[in-house]
């Protein structure tokens, strides 16, 4: 599989690692302190994420897999294209996407698949997982979502289906998600398509279990972002002095992930030549995972320039994959 990296071109003057350092500086200087979840996925993070998705407490991946398995033949019929660009934002290991690609290939469609991911490691894993096919052309793009999408659209004008699976949309708050979907819309042509995975609102115990799995993979996954800062930016975080804490916020309608500092401590980051003070039990915010009602999904599409073609859900109404058409003018 051919892979192109756009990361070092993203800002004229700074490499990806400089950008990581700047983001960490800003996030740890803010109040409350935070770190961006886009930095979860180094080698160890990608492996841990795979373990989370396979754990029985974590329902989203297996539920979305079952939905995609159900719709893999219907989707090519609904779109009715002979050639299509399937562009996946935050593709990860592409495990679920293979189902959809095979559906299009079985329908004799020629598929150009462009997985986009900020993690080089995830992209390499995807390359190892993908099976070859005469009608399947894969070009991986290592980049931020919107930068990667613009690059693909600048190089191809085929009918496009953008995939945004795995409930990645839930990492944006309600306002950010509108801004993000509008940016996607700007890169697309009328009658192009988007398929988005939304995690639905559900009983809190199911949610809390999923983000606090009994094997501790989610805990290790969240702590690994500190290890990544130690490895790549020369920090001295002591991981056993932080506690993973995942809760549901019913006012926001979101799961929230934190690391809590177990004592008052100072952490030094060599690359930034800067120390950061943590109070005892001070929270470090890592991630939101917003949950949706079906009515929220319709509202979001109307606000951002799409029309809902069809919603697909599982028998327990835990997850929804929503197929949208781009409408312009
Ligand atoms: C939760 S995983 C989901 C992977 C896959 N879509 C799935 O459903 O299993 C999120 C993926 O999005 C990527 N990602 C996160 N933020 C990103 C960004 N701003 N731009 C590009 N990729 C991003 C991560 O590297 C990771 O591989």
From TrEMBL:
GO biological process annotation, one example: methylation
InterPro entries listed in its UniProt record: EgtD_Methyltrsf_superfamily, MeTrfase_dom, MeTrfase_EgtD-like, SAM-dependent_MTases_sf
Record-level Gene Ontology MF annotations: methyltransferase activity
Protein keywords: Methyltransferase, Transferase
Signal peptide: none
One Pfam family named in its UniProt record: Methyltransf_33
Domain Histidine-specific methyltransferase SAM-dependent span(s) in chain numbering: 22-325
Protein name stated in the entry: Histidine-specific methyltransferase SAM-dependent domain-containing protein
Naturally occurring in which organism (per UniProt): uncultured Thiotrichaceae bacterium
Lineage: Bacteria, Pseudomonadati, Pseudomonadota, Gammaproteobacteria, Thiotrichales
């Amino acid at each position: 599989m051919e892979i192109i990296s756009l990361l070092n071109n993203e800002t004229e003057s700074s490499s990806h690692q400089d950008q990581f350092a700047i983001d960490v500086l800003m996030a740890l200087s803010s109040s409350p302190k935070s770190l961006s979840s886009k930095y979860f996925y180094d080698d160890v993070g990608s492996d841990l994420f795979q373990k989370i998705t396979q754990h029985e407490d974590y329902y989203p991946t297996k539920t979305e897999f079952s939905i995609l398995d159900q719709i893999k033949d219907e989707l090519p019929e609904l779109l009715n294209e002979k050639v299509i660009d399937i562009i996946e934002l935050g593709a990860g290991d592409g495990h679920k996407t293979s189902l959809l690609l095979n559906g299009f290939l079985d329908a004799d469609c020629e598929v150009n698949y462009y997985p986009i991911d900020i993690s080089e490691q995830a992209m390499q894993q995807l390359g190892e997982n993908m099976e070859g096919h005469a009608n399947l052309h894969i070009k991986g793009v290592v980049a931020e979502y919107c930068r990667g999408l613009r690059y693909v659209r600048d190089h191809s004008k085929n009918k496009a289906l953008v995939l945004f699976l795995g409930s990645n949309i839930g990492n944006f708050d309600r306002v950010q998600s509108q801004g993000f979907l509008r940016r996607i819309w700007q890169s697309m042509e009328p009658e192009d398509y988007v398929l988005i995975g939304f995690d639905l609102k559900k009983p809190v115990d199911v949610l809390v279990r999923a983000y606090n799995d009994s094997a501790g993979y989610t805990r290790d996954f969240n702590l690994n972002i500190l290890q990544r800062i130690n490895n790549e930016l020369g920090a001295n975080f002591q991981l056993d002095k932080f506690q993973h804490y995942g809760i549901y916020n019913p006012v926001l309608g979101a799961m929230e992930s934190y690391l809590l500092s177990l004592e008052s401590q100072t952490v030094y980051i060599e690359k930034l030549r800067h120390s950061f003070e943590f109070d005892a039990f001070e929270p470090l915010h890592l991630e939101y995972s917003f949950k949706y009602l079906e009515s929220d999904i319709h509202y979001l599409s109307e606000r951002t320039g799409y029309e809902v073609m069809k919603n697909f859900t599982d028998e327990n109404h835990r997850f929804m994959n929503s197929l949208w058409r781009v409408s312009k003018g």
